[in-house]
Amino acid sequence: VMDLFSYLSYIIIIQGLAMAREGEDPGMAKASKVKRQRKKKPKENKTRTVHANILYDNAKGEENPNRNYANNKIKTTKYTVLSFLPKNLFEQFHRFANVYFVFIALLNFVPVVNAFQPELALAPVVFILSVTAIKDLWEDYRRHRSDQEINHMDCLVYSRAERRYVERYWKEVRVGDFIRLRCNEILPADVLLLSSSDPDRLCHIETATLDGETNLKQRQVVRSFFDLDCDFDPLKYNGIIECEKPNNDLNRFRGYIIHQSGRRDALYKENLLLRGCTIRNTEEAVGIVIYAGHETKAMLNNNGPRYKRSKLERQMNVHVFWCVIILLVMCLFAAVGHGLWMFQYGDKRPVFDVLSPEGTDLSPIMSAIYLFLTMIIVFQVLIPISLFVSIEIVKICQVYFIHQDMDLYDEETDSHLQCRALNITEDLGQMQYIFSDKTGTLTENKMVFRRCTVAGVEYSHDANARRLAMYQEMDSEEEDCTSHSGTLPRRDSVTSHQSARVVLRSQSTKSHRRTGSRAEAKRASILSKHTAFSSPMEKDITPDPQLLDKVNECSSQMDFMRFHSQPMSQLPSDLADIIDFFIALTICNTVVVSSPNQPRQKVKLTSTKSIQSNLLRVNKGSSSSSLITNRSSNRGCSSLLSSPSAESTLTKLDEEQPPRGLEHSFGPVPPCYNGKAWNLEDGELRYEAESPDEAALVYAARAYKCSLVGRLPDQVTVELPHLGKLSFELLHTLGFDSTRKRMSVVVRHPLTDQITVYTKGADSAIMDLIKPPDTGRKY
Q1: Each residue's pLDDT tens digit, 137-178
Q2: Beta bridge partners of 499
Q3: Residues with Cβ < 8 Å from 637, sequence gap 6 or more?
Q4: β strands within 170-283, DSSP E
Q5: Model confidence over 31-63: pLDDT tens digits?
Q6: Is 196 in contact with 294 (CB distance < 8 Å)?
Q7: Is 437 a catalytic residue?
Q8: Edge-first strand listing for the sheet containing 47-50
Q9: 717-723 own/partner pairs: CB under 8 Å, 24+ apart
Q10: Which residues lie in Low complexity bias regions (predicted)?
């Protein structure tokens, strides 16, 4: 050893002298060597480069720079054929009772200490493990089947060979593919938005599957593709995308797109459409796949299946542990007693003594040890294995009854309750604390118009309240058509007619919904076909008689003033408030209007003046004001369309027929979505809203024939029963946010040519802004 140590020291000294001759310090040389080695190590790239796949369709797979990225095939199963048995047994041995029973069964195979037939002792343990394994295997098979359904869903991918979009399975989508998305389709991957049919180059998506929020969110086309005058052509795309690597942050996306000219445009989260979201209110959109499969943000937030243990199982583990402690204490007492009893005999052999395997006498200590193990087998009933067998059987039966329970059947989706975790069914209904925001995430999020107040006058809408109560009653009682029609309460003729129509419509809706598909992926596609927030409960508003009379009175008064060319200032203030109220309901929103025979598309903006010339011939004075300002203190006359000094008048419309009363103009409510296609009458408008409250207010205004008929980027067209169609120039929109707690639109009124602000929002924010008209303060 000393010689070896001396030899190594000699070598180190020689190397040090050699380095000293070269003028280098050994420590510095070593550090520089390590530094050179670090420099040779390639630097890890923190970004992802995405090229268009159509540029490499004819090339070999090795030449495609996107070849190393994950494909779009997903797999959420927990087991494979080889890993099922060891992995499942490992998970089952987390239950302390299973470890105990296996130990007892193996101990019973020892000839010296066995107390029962070994094969019989093993049967209950094998039964418990087998039942649980079969249950876990069935649960994993359902995941596999769900994966297959999702992987085999269709989407449109651009093919360079065919020069068109062709249908492909989701699993065949790759990073760099161009995808065409249509309204109500589910996104197959994380897609960068490059084109949209929306005039504002927006795409509305529903992210309920990601964050549980039902309100629609806006995504915008990449800035460099914003000014395209024609449809997006993938063959003309020549950009390269540099973005961050896949991560699970849903609210972050950074990158840039490099054009052939070298110009770079930044990319943000507003340009990215996430997998699992649904396209809403947008006829068509085109994008390029950035992340696919398990690299999408939705899949990265999915930690995969894990073994779940119920609260009952965790409590049983604790109880079994204490039972084992008691069992060991009992066996210890028995073993000590047996050892003392054997020690009393000394060299004499006691009666019924157990010999050793060699046939010799056992010492008191060895005899006590053998008896200790034997008593464990004898006292094993302290932990009843039959209890665990019964629990497994009860769980299977409970899952069956949960699936067959008609009280848990949902008619809207035509589906029963799905029990996805079969081993935690006993936790159902055992929640003690619920963490929810103040808006009530656990509600259905259905905003229904109930009543309103205009200028301090409340309109209760009693008939509408009875209609809503009838909807709730029908949903809760699950009665058939004949029983409903036979038990309708007696009301006046109008209400009875409304109620009967509601009943028939509801049952027609239910009959359509019962024919839906039960496959989860296909059912999601079918359910997404209807317009958001457009159920009959939300659309069919029963007008209030008093408010309806006010609207009819306003229509008659406006017709009279138009016939006699009287100033609009003579309109009574209560009628002016009615007009202001319905205009605010109609235009103070972001609702998009479309129809089956004329979908929303890029439309050239028509000037407000040209529309006005076709609708109204109005003589405007220089001092005219807006609809809602400068109310007189006595409120004897209205400043709805002008101030008292204004000379604006209403003239006859050459192209307009004499107005009819609203009571004669109500038509049938459009039929519901039948699960296959829109089957609406020609001219029937549908409203596509970002939130349910906006849809409810627009439908409420339409019930009084104050309809929103068109929306362009800088223009909103409404139809009023007393004025016909009016086009408001939309100057600016202040969206709703948590700070202001209100939304405002700034418009130029077509009759007064004055700038007007309409606002809606929470009562806590709006009420503080309301001031009496005699304060003299201007807003």
Answers
A1: 988 898 999 999 999 999 999 998 888 999 999 999 999 999
A2: none
A3: 569, 570, 571, 572, 573, 644
A4: 178-182, 190-196, 202-206, 217-220, 240-244, 255-258, 264-267, 272-273, 278-280
A5: 444 445 554 445 556 788 999 888 887 666 567
A6: no
A7: yes
A8: 47-50, 240-244, 255-258, 264-267
A9: 717/611, 718/583, 718/586, 718/587, 720/579, 720/582, 720/583, 721/551, 721/555, 721/659, 721/662, 721/665, 722/554, 722/555, 722/557, 722/558, 722/559, 722/579, 722/659, 723/558, 723/615, 723/616, 723/751
A10: 622-650
Q: What share of the chain is helix, strand, coil (3-state, %, to 5)?
A: 40, 15, 45
Average pLDDT score over residue span 213-218 = 78
Give the list of residues 6+ apart from residue 272 with CB closer than 8 angstroms, or none. 190, 191, 192, 193, 219, 253, 290
pTM of the predicted structure, to 2 decimals: 0.62
d(CA 254, CA 243): 6
C-alpha neighbours within 13 Å on the C-beta side of residue 132:
27
Find out whether 282 and 197 touch, Cβ atoms under 8 Å. yes
DSSP assignment of 738-776: TTT-EEEEEEE-TTT--EEEEEEE-HHHHHHH---GGG-
- Quote the Cα angle for 282-287-290, to 5°: 135
List the binding residues for Mg(2+).
437, 439
Length of the chain, please?
779
How many angstroms separate the CA atoms of 270 and 636, rounded?
51
Q: What is the DSSP letter of 577?
A: H
* Residue showing tokens 């923190």: 46
First to last CA, the chain: 98
325-340 as b/e, with b when 16 or more CB fall inside 10 Å? eebeeebeebbeebbe
Pairing of strands 278-280, 202-206: antiparallel
Residue whose token pair is 């849809």: 695
Show the tokens assigned to 493. Answer: 């003729």
Question: In which residue are the tokens 């079994």 written?
Answer: 320
The Cα diameter of the chain in Å comes to 135
Handedness of CA 150, 151, 156, 157 (dihedral sign): positive
Residues forming the annotated binding site for ATP? 437-439, 694, 736, 760
pLDDT for 525: 41
- Rounded Cα distance, 193 and 220, in Å: 7
The CA-atom distances, in angstroms, between 233 and each of 160, 267, 367 are 11, 20, 89
Catalytic residue among 3, 227, 437, 768: 437
Kindly give, in sequence order, each residue whose CB lies less than 8 Å from that of residue 321, ignoring residues fewer than 6 positions away. 96
At 674-719, the pLDDT tens digits run 333 333 343 467 787 777 888 888 988 888 888 898 887 788 889 8
Rg (CA), the chain: 38
